[in-house]
Amino acid sequence: MEDRYGHRISYLRVSITDRCNERCTYCMPRELQEWLAREDVLSYEETLRLIRIAAGMGVSKVRITGGEPLTRRDVLGFFQQLPAIPGINDIGISTNGSLLSRCSRRPVGDVGAALQDLSHASHSEAATEEKTMARALREAGVNSVNISLDTLDREAYAATTGRDFLPQVLEGIDAAIAAKFPLIKLNCVLMRGRNEDQLIPLAEFAAARNLILRFIELMPVSHSDVLDESNFLPIAEARRNLESHFGPLIPEPGFRTNGPSTYYKVAGREQRLGFIGAMTNLHFCESCNKLRLTCDGKLRPCLGSYLEFDIMKVMRAGATDAELRRFFLDVVERKPEQHDFRENYQPGRMMVAIGG
Ligand code: SAM
Ligand code: SF4
Prior knowledge:
By secondary structure, the protein is of the alpha/beta class. Helix content is 30%, strand content 16%.
């Protein structure tokens, strides 16, 4: 699948839930939102069918996201079916990490139950005898894990995410390391005044664990008050802060992980730092290889555009595989040259409802 601008689609980001056990200020509203009704969310079978069709058209990588994907019931059973899809050779998950160290056999049930679970002192205690969720995901064939970590300060973590989950998240990172995923990335959303002081501690934390750390510019996919200029910290400034501590960062144009990040090496170390400058990097969209499938069955050709197309509706109306293939091609045909974030874009949907 190739669009009018030469973007080749090889990567499908699939959201399997709009629910989350955290409440990140930049991603969803703090007041209780209505979750989608179960019947309005694609079933696992429907999601797998669409992934199969996309894989038949050149998609080789899927990343499962949400909301928090690990809050969905029977999520492991879903992951276990992905490697059997012909053409899929790269399976990733994006997670806040809070459920990675829990025992894989304890059903999350719903988000309420997940929250109750998290009030227990330690997941790893519960999981020592049993397999952790991280290990079960690895065994299911997941090779890449992105874990969100904006700060190592417990109070700041709670203030940003609305939940005091930092200890569980750190246990989750340990569980992911113990599970030996080939690729683990930590993702930090840059927020002026909130985590500017955390760039170096996070870089040291990642270096000590041999993990890739990426810094992401805040994008307008939430309330406009969160996205005020005063909150925005550009990647260039983050890089300067890091360089004032570590010395010049060495660009690594040849290193890519299938996403929009540009990577640098820290001099004298094996450590890699990534920068995702969706707002300030004017070439950001040039190498875009992505389509998104929301949990309510919309195909989105671009995160930063209002365009979305209801593939669930046509599938539930009885579309054949050939008709669904046509649908994919039509959506790709409409993929914009670049996102609209710099054009006074106002979010139509929260990030949590799209799948970041
Ligand atoms: N719950 C999982 C997590 O937190 O990683 C997966 C879903 S989350 C929407 C995926 C990624 O989007 C996270 O790394 C999160 O930090 C990022 N994200 C959410 N809102 C964002 C925003 N307004 N700007 C930039 N990144 C954002
Ligand atoms: Fe939940 Fe992830 Fe959004 Fe935070 S960024 S509210 S953890 S979906």
